[in-house]
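Q: I'm building a small set of examples for a reading group on sequence design. Run inverse folding on the following structure and report the sequence directly after it, with nothing in between.
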């Protein structure tokens, strides 16, 4: 199973820049998208116009036009879909969608999530932490089944200094706060989830998955690793390869994020 997670920073903009052509060429089995920023009709039309029209699309658009939106694309029809993460305040926020696809030993749950940036010591940050609480509760429920599950997406959290080039300059700022990082620690310690990208790559620094459009951040590789595939223990054991699809040059970028591809030794039905 080749699973690609990509924050497209607007599906139509990514398509114009060649992002969907890149995705087609990767021969994925499942594609998780974040920051789709489109209606359901706009998403499906864009996919159809760029070689992905025959995929099954599960989409949770954001309630505010032009904001958020997550989707999962599968080659086979999903056996279950949901965009309910629990708390009512996140209903229709376009930040969570999960699908079940059939594997040889039961369903594989793939989640695409987009956690907003937040802002330290503000209500925005309080909301971000509440959302991370909800993510943890849902991951706990999925872990209880003992099956295969993977959380993909843009968490807007750097787990350690290895995940952020300028970590000293970001101490105390959203995205690098201990209370954010503690969530990822608990998912691992309490529920057995594994950051498969970090496990397969080994220690950092990097590889990063996000760079500002501004200045020389991309050219200097002054990035953040905020895009993840975090798998349940049984699925993590099947992960064999992880790769960040960093563009060869600034003018070849199709998003401010780079896609994260992970191969799992698992054949979907």
């Amino acid at each position: 199973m080749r699973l690609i997670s990509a924050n497209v920073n607007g599906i139509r903009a990514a398509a114009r820049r060649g992002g969907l052509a890149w995705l087609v060429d990767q021969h994925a089995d499942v594609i998780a998208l974040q920051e789709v920023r489109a209606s359901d009709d706009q998403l499906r039309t864009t996919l159809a116009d760029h070689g992905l029209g025959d995929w099954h699309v599960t989409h949770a658009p954001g309630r505010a036009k032009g904001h958020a939106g997550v989707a999962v694309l599968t080659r086979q029809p999903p056996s279950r879909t949901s965009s309910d993460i629990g708390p009512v305040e996140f209903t229709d926020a376009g930040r969570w969608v999960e699908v079940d696809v059939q594997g040889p030993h039961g369903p594989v749950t793939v989640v695409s999530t987009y956690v907003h940036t937040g802002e330290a010591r503000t209500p925005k940050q309080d909301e971000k932490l509440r959302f991370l609480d909800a993510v943890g509760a849902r991951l706990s429920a999925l872990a209880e089944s003992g099956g295969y599950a993977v959380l993909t997406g843009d968490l807007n959290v750097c787990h350690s200094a290895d995940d952020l080039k300028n970590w000293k300059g970001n101490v105390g700022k959203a995205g690098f706060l201990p209370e954010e990082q503690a969530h990822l620690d608990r998912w691992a310690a309490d529920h057995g989830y594994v950051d498969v990208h970090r496990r397969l790559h080994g220690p950092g620094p990097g590889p990063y998955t996000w760079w500002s459009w501004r200045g020389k951040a991309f050219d200097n590789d002054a990035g953040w690793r905020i895009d993840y595939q975090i798998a349940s223990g049984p699925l993590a054991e099947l992960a064999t390869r992880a790769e960040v699809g960093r563009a060869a040059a600034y003018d070849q970028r199709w998003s401010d994020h780079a896609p994260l591809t992970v191969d799992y030794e698992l054949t979907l039905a």
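Residues 2-264 form a domain with the Deoxyribonuclease I; Chain A fold (CATH 3.60.10.10).
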